[in-house]
Amino acid sequence: MWTPPGQNQSWVSEFILLGFSGDPTFNRILFISFLLLYLSSVLGNGLIVALICLDIQLHTPMYFFLCILSLLDMGCVTTTMPQMLVHLLARSQTISFASCWLQMYVFGALGLTECIFFIVMAYDRYVAICHPLHYTVILSWGLCIRLAAGTWACSFFFSLIHTFLTMRLPYCGPNVVNHYFCEGPSVRSLACMDTHLIEMVDLVISVFMVVAPLSLILASYIRIGQTIIKIKSTQGRCKAFSTCASHVTVVTLFYAPATYIYMRPNSSYSPEQDKQISLFYNVFPAFLNPVVYSLRNKDIKGAFLKVMGWGRVPW
Length: 315
Hints:
Blueprint: E1 14-17, H1 24-54, H2 61-89, E2 94-96, H3 97-130, H4 135-138, H5 141-167, E3 176-177, H6 184-188, H7 196-230, H8 234-262, H9 271-277, H10 279-282, H11 284-294, H12 298-307
Parallel strand pairs: 1-3
Antiparallel strand pairs: 1-2
Helix pairs in contact: 1-2, 1-11, 1-12, 2-3, 2-11, 3-5, 3-7, 3-8, 5-7, 7-8, 8-11
């Protein structure tokens, strides 16, 4: 504990992350399960990044964006899971105020980047299906780099606002966070003052960073669906649909739980439920994305076999 200058009230200098269970045996089971999930996520996404970098035939806007998505997924799970794994086995589950601040900021920045980046990937599919003859002209490398850089800059800025407003609140005890990492709503619930104004600011950010991107993605896929219906051949329609199915699956896995967590009032905060739901936009998407994007992707399979020296996929 420490006392700010000029104040008699003490503020917490560290938080205790409660995690999932206090049972050592169950924690060891969770440790093995989450360790396998984490390693699979990092290896799977790392493999996609490596294949896209090594195979020149994958140097296209679609795979450039997929490479960035894989990097974001690796960043998100690495921001939270290593510490969670340590806490599952260690007796001490504390995290310093500064470390909590940093974890909240980095996780929020990467998560917001992923939110906006799904718009970029939807736009890529829109151009590829609705304007296939002008695909390389519209999505030039200059535009791709500007879109990627813009999403990162915008997200890190808004995450800074969210983190600054949350962590500047007075925390005078208790300091037990009922979560496995320093997530904004979980930490904010411990503040010893009214947080209504901060909630309103967060709601505005969420509308701008979650609802607006989701609306644009939906509009893109409505237009894509209209174009697919006009394709005469069944094979052409199936091919066009398959190029979008992976993206729609990943967007659903990410946005559904994230919207529930961040777009509701603090009064409906449920620690145990939120802790479990957060796994569905933090851990599981990073684990499933490599499977979703590579399982039916002939280009990724071909790149893998070529790197391994086994030639191309025969189908």
